[in-house]
Design a protein that fits this description.
This protein has 628 residues and is of the alpha/beta class. 42% of the residues lie in helices and 21% in strands. The protein has helices at residues 47-65, 96-107, 139-151, 162-173, 211-221, 225-235, 250-280, 301-309, 330-336, 341-348, 363-387, 391-447, 450-473, 520-523, 525-529, 565-568, 576-587, and strands at residues 7-12, 16-24, 30-39, 71-76, 81-88, 115-124, 130-138, 155-161, 181-186, 191-197, 200-206, 288-292, 312-315, 323-324, 484-490, 552-553, 556-563, 600-608, 613-620, 626-627.
């Protein structure tokens, strides 16, 4: 049927409430004007609290989106709906209703007096048998949905089933696909699997939903269900299986395994349904799979089913052939479009004749709707009678006085609460400022030890270099003495003639802190032969040096001196071996940038024949910039 007014469609799912506002556009197509998805949590699956929860959630969504439409089509949750495909023998059309009622009595797991049921003839098999979709739902469930709509001041027009709504949405958007296609809708408590092939439809409800992943993870991690659900959405993914590195995040590691176990169970059910469809329904092998439902976007879900089923996997887009209003946030819609197949299918019921048309409205609800249609005339009669009495004016006057008195009584309380709110905001602002300052101080405290750790690691690198050279040269000269030390440490732009404070030749006034002069006879041949000439100490840098002249750099120059192998081993020995050993050991330090170009020898080796040593320069890039 064609309706030009805006209207609502609502899917009361087990894990979320999905709402959309549609309107018939000028060309006779369907246009989306608004949408919303609200989570229901674990309470959404509990009958004792479900009706109250979906009412408050629906009212909040309507108020938040500013929706004015009053007519609504709803879809009952999959775990409340019984659906089954049956085949009927070829009979006279006058006896079809009677045979279908008999089939309903045999297949529906409740007395027919307690349910609302409907059917749709989807076609006939080559043998002449009629293919019928039979759907049933308990009357009290639909009456509960009617009460929710009435409390939200909405006019319930029809109640559809999830498989039928998905079928209509898919046919409208992908009617050009002729070969066999599967649509898997993964819900919170149940999942729906539909097959489409050349106008033929087959559906099965699978009693597996993504809430099982959340519940298992909550039990394993000792978390509340709502907290586990948030972590699942933010960090969860389906494990790839086989040999792979387990995530360091323990939540991700747990969820990925649980999710794969769930998807494996779901795949088994999908595969069984596929075999039944091909064997009993005469279907062909599917060529592609469309995924829908909130749980389908868990990372690697598509890859999992593509690997298991060996078919092309895509995400269902129910808005493929629909017009989208400019006021709709397209980025937000693209993230949840795959979950809105049911609401689109409900909207298409107001557009034109659909492939599957059912209305699970009980007689009591239909009678109530009839009464509501007559209600305006009854109200008009009552109002006409009230208007002729003088009590109306008196009543309104009293009400106005009471309202003013109540406002006067509440004004001081509102003012007091507003003052408390201002005080709270000021205190909260101070708290945030203090927290930021504390975080900055903590950062400074952590960085204060980095320079010491870095130099200590460089010293260990020199010791390892000595050991390495000693082992290599022991074959030529056992017990060979090897000595390597840092003579200067400068940033790249520093004057090589001006060593950093406290970084001079060992034993001199600029000796490194912690240097033991007893090392001189081992590392400095000049000391072995007599006192070495100590270069004059360089003046300390001016304390008033501008901050701009200090540098935050990630490159440091080490000027190193080592005992010449030409003296201690053999005149033909190559001193470059020592320089390369120092470079390699420094590059292997965990505090140095692992890039191969970050640690390099620069310049030439400078021999000092007077004291039997030589110098070489190494540029080192730490992982963390150092402040000079």
């Amino acid at each position: 049927m064609l309706n030009t007014k805006s209207f609502l469609t609502v899917d009361f799912g087990a894990g979320s409430l999905k709402l959309a506002e549609f309107e018939i556009n000028e060309s006779g197509g369907l246009r989306l004007d608004n949408f919303a998805i609200k989570p229901l949590g674990l309470e959404g699956t509990q009958e004792a609290t479900r009706e109250k929860l979906i009412l408050s959630t629906l009212q909040a969504a309507i108020a938040e989106k500013g929706i004015k439409a009053k007519d609504v089509n709803v879809c009952a949750p999959g775990f409340h709906v019984f659906s089954k495909f049956v085949k009927l023998p070829p009979v006279d059309s006058s006896k079809v209703d009677q045979i279908i009622q008999y089939e309903a009595q045999q297949n529906v797991p409740f007395p027919l007096a307690e349910v609302v049921w409907d059917y749709q003839i989807l076609g006939s098999a080559p043998s002449g048998e009629l293919e019928v979709l039979l759907v049933a739902i308990k009357s009290d469930i639909v009456e509960g949905l009617f009460r929710v709509a009435a409390e939200a001041k909405l006019n319930l027009q029809l109640c559809d089933a999830s498989p039928a709504a998905l079928c209509n949405a898919f046919r409208y958007n992908y009617g050009d696909l002729e070969d066999c296609t599967m649509l898997l809708d993964i819900g919170a408590k149940t999942s729906n699997l539909l097959f489409f092939e050349k106008g033929k439809v087959f559906s099965r409800s699978i009693n597996l939903g993504a809430n099982a992943i959340t519940q298992d993870f909550a039990n394993e991690s000792k978390l509340k269900f709502d907290d586990a659900e948030k972590i699942k959405i933010q960090e969860g993914f389906v494990s790839l299986g086989g040999a792979y590195e387990e995530p360091e995040n323990p939540h991700q590691a747990a969820i990925s395994k649980i999710a794969r176990q769930f998807m494996t169970k779901l795949h088994i059910q999908v595969n069984q349904t596929l075999q039944f469809y091909r064997g009993q329904q005469g279907g062909s092998a599917p060529q592609r799979l469309f995924l829908s439902g909130g749980a389908s976007i868990m990372p690697y879900t598509a890859q999992f089913f593509a690997e298991k089923l060996n078919v092309q996997v895509e995400y269902f887009n129910p808005f493929r052939n629909l017009q989208i209003s400019p006021s709709v946030n397209l980025e937000e819609l693209s993230r949840v479009a795959h979950s809105l197949g049911e609401v689109v299918g409900l909207g298409l019921r107001n557009l034109a004749t659909c492939p599957v048309e059912m209305n699970l409205m009980p007689d009591s609800t239909l009678r109530w709707q009839s009464f509501n249609q007559k209600k305006p005339y009854l109200i008009a009669t009552v109002v006409s009678m009230v208007l002729v009495t003088f009590a109306v004016g008196f009543l309104f006057e009293k009400l106005a006085e009471n309202k003013k008195a109540e406002i006067a009584r509440l004004d001081p309380q509102v003012a007091e609460l507003s003052h408390k709110m201002d005080v709270f905001r000021q205190a909260h602002g101070k708290l945030e400022k203090t927290q930021k300052e504390a975080e900055q101080i903590a950062t400074w405290m952590q960085q204060r030890y980095y320079w010491g750790d870095f130099l200590a690691d460089m010293r260990r690198a020199l010791i390892r270099s000595e050991d390495d050279i000693r082992k290599k040269m022991s074959a030529q000269k056992p017990g060979v003495e090897v000595g390597i030390w840092v003579e200067q440490i400068n940033p790249p732009d520093a004057n090589a003639a001006n060593p950093a404070p406290g970084m001079g030749i060992p034993g001199g006034p600029g000796a490194m802190p912690g240097y033991d002069p007893r090392y001189d006879p081992r590392y400095n041949p000049r000391v072995r032969g007599g006192p070495a000439e100590v270069p004059p100490a360089q003046p300390a840098p001016d304390a008033a040096q501008p901050a701009a002249e200090q540098s935050n750099t990630n490159a440091i120059t080490f000027i190193c001196r080592a005992v010449s192998l030409k003296i201690t081993v053999d005149p033909s020995a190559n001193n470059k071996d020592i320089a390369y050993a120092v470079r390699d050991e420094i590059a292997s330090s965990p505090l140095v940038d692992p890039d191969a170009k970050a640690t390099q020898l620069v310049g030439e080796i400078s021999p000092d024949d007077a004291n039997g040593t030589f110098t070489f320069t190494v540029n080192v890039t730490p992982k963390t910039p150092l402040k000079f």
